[in-house]
Specification:
α2 runs antiparallel to α3. This protein starts with 8 loop residues before the first helix and ends with a strand. It is built from 8 helices and 7 strands. It has one domain. The longest helix is centred in the middle third of the chain and has 19 residues. It is globular, with a radius of gyration of 18 Å. A hairpin with a 2-residue loop joins β2 and β3. The strands form 3 sheets. It has a 3-stranded mixed sheet. Strands 1-4 form a two-stranded parallel sheet. A two-stranded antiparallel ribbon has the order 2-3. By secondary structure, the chain is α/β, with parallel strands linked by helices.
Length: 229
């Protein structure tokens, strides 16, 4: 999967369901995607936080897409203040906020570094023991087409079962993978709800929101609330 910024819980369900998780960072950056942005809760509605980038475009690989450092520090301060004011009354604010701040405070050049760090640190917090790898530099297969690259990665890792997000159903064919010795499934998160200050529930926000309102033990139960299709 592409590295996403503090992704939603379905992303962590995908990580938790796998023996090995590959950050797919040597594919093209997609504008309006989730590589550098996500949604949190502000004033009982969803609010987008977006890391500023330098000349981001779909002709550039994710791993080569730079953070705009002229804007980043100001953005970081403002975003942390927004998170503070929005979630300071949440039951698990302190531990969640400290994790987020530690991630944002590190020095990065590329957005992939920040997004990967946000995911790995969150996974460690949740006790997920999946092994992480980064596709760039590990696999020499950029000349292959979309399906064959994934099959090549599975074979390189001695894997015969590949799990993708539900959006992959529009792109990947199970029979094509099966003919090449790979079982393909898609992970479908089931409905998850929890108390967000007693207001109308807004689903599928960033894992930031989930961590603010739920204990690690509660989130671990959520990680198994999905079905494979």
């Amino acid at each position: 999967m592409q590295p996403y910024l503090f992704p939603y819980i379905g992303y962590f369900q995908l990580i938790n369901s796998a023996d090995k998780f590959i950050f797919y960072d040597d594919v093209n950056y997609i504008k309006q995607g989730w590589v550098n942005r996500n949604r949190i809760l502000v004033n009982n509605t969803d609010f987008m936080i977006t890391v500023p980038l330098e000349k981001a475009n779909s002709f550039c690989l994710i791993k080569d897409t730079k953070i705009n450092h002229a804007l980043y520090n100001k953005w970081k301060i403002k975003t942390l203040q927004t998170i503070l004011h929005s979630y300071k009354r949440a039951p698990f604010f302190d531990v969640s906020y400290n994790l987020i701040k530690e991630v944002f405070d590190k020095d990065y050049v590329f957005i992939s570094q920040l997004s990967i760090e946000s995911t790995i640190r969150t996974s460690e917090y949740l006790g997920i023991e999946t092994n992480f790898f980064i596709s760039s530099g590990r696999y020499q297969n950029v000349e292959l087409n979309r399906e064959e690259r994934l099959i090549n990665i599975c074979r390189s890792e001695n894997g015969d079962h590949y799990i993708n997000a539900t959006g992959g159903q529009e792109i990947y064919n199970k029979e094509y993978f099966r003919e090449r010795g790979i079982q393909l499934n898609f992970i479908k998160p089931l409905s998850i709800t929890y108390n967000q200050f007693g207001a109308n529930f807004i689903p599928w926000l960033s894992i930031i929101d989930v961590m603010m309102f739920n204990s690690r033990e509660e989130i671990k139960k959520m990680l198994n609330h999905f079905e494979l299709i």
